Amino acid sequence: MAETRIQSRNRAAILDAGLEVFSRRGFGGATLDQIAAEAGLSKPNLLYYFPSKEAIHRDLLLGLMGAWLDPMRRIDPEGEPLDEIMGYVRRKMDLTRHYPRESRLFANEILQGAHHIDDTLGGELRDLVDRTAALIQGWVDRGRLAPVDPHHTIISVWALTQHYADFDVQVRAVLGDADPLLRAEAHVEQLFRRLLTPPADSTR
Asked: Rounded to two decimals, what is the model's pTM?
């Protein structure tokens, strides 16, 4: 039976509240009472939709993984290599700007041992990273990108883009910027463009 509009709204409110609480407190520090209060619902009402905080957490992580993998999936093997990688970097920065809570949820899960998504990390994510690394290596071998370690280049993209969401408080405290991403986006793009641009005569 299809959910009513109220049921859909309540389910969405619970997931949004769970995202807020989990991103601030981590899985271990979050409680159903906190999530229910954040959602503006009673705990029994919340339990009508989700039997446990594990169920809420799992739904959030499963939804997040699709969004997290999509920017890499969109790298076009037939495109211009530098443009494709820089597009990936920009898409990751867009995720940092628009979905900081999701980034912190993911970071908290990783810091806690990734027990809820370890099969995805070692399966779907690893397969996608291996394919993308092989693509980058092919571009390097043909002189279309500067010599880099493909796997560590991908990890570096993660580190440099997601840091601005995961460590937002630290970044803002150090920079004092109302919006540190205004400068960060240009800086990160400059770093990877310089790293990946092949020598002028490498493709001749």
From this structure: 0.85
